[in-house]
Amino acid sequence: MNYIYNGLASVFMTVEISKTRGQFVFSGFFIAHFACFGIVLPFLPLWMKSHGISDGDVGLILSSAFISKVVFGLAVGTLADATGHRKYWILFLAITNLIGFWIFAQTDSFWPMLIVWFIVGPLQTSMIPMIDGLAITAARRGFLNYGPARLFGSIAFIVVSSIAGVYLAGKSIDHIPTLLMIFGGIVVIAVLPLPDLRPRQKAGRRIALFDVVKIPGLMGFVMAAALLQSSHGALYAIATQHWANAGLSSDMIGFLWAEGVTAEVILFAFGAILLKKVGLRGLLWLAVIGGTIRWFTLGATTDTVVLIIVQVLHAFTFAATHLSITNYISRHVPDELTASAQTFYDGLAMGILIGLFMTVSSWLYDTAVAGHVFWIMMGISLTAGVVLVFTGKKARELGI
Asked: How far apart are CA 195 and CA 381, in angstroms?
């Protein structure tokens, strides 16, 4: 009995680890998690379409998860900071996500899919801010170099989405739910060796979010980053269907998704160097410029050569923004509030805003606007630039 208890304790109650082990286990989680995303983002829309769901309704189903994530993600992040048991909450999300995948695979019409994904979707996406919060703690204690670990996750997305595209080209689209459950199970396994690093000082009794929003300069910076991330709304909602409608094959669609993440990998690999040269705010300006060019181009053409070229800008629109906000939180948010800060940002960027923009994109795509909906995303990127101008003045006043 003691042997079993000690074994479980070694898995769930690890407090101090070496940097080598920390790098290994966090990299393993990112690999598993983003391999799963390598099925969800490019191919789940195609599976829903095979069940007679329209392009617009597919986008609505996907966007529902981002909307429900606002409440769900913030609640889990607040509980994680209040209890200090971040790993337990990540494991809870992973297990319930796996069960949710199985339930979703049993649906075959719009309303059941919408209801189930409204619950299941945020289970998967809420793991990102939670693991980032844990990773920030590990990095602060010298157990992790975040950039390289996150890079392995991007590589996993590239490999899985590329291979899955080729695999599915000659097979039934009904293989997708099976692949989701396989990778969902791998995510659960990948959580187990993560360290149970707890804040050295717990958040107070009141809701930690109240303390997060009072951090000087945080709100403006978070809003700019959130607008930049949420400008991907049309990409996540209708890009796969848009490209398929234009005649692109499943393997080419998989390649385009993989190519964007390849660019992301390169930026993560050299992110520390770029960060030193341009700073946190400079990374966001790169995202503003990259988003303006990328979303204008995607709204103007579906030419394969042009798409291949412009997908490289994912390095700036996504990776530069992610690197900037992660480092900002690491530098300016107390350890006991990082999970709440991450989930607050994630709830805004990858919750309410992106859910709204995905919903709007889905509605408009089924109208005469069609692919020009990407131009609305361009406007969102430009709006983030306006916010940056004002937050820049505020930051100088605060000395940050």
From this structure: 37
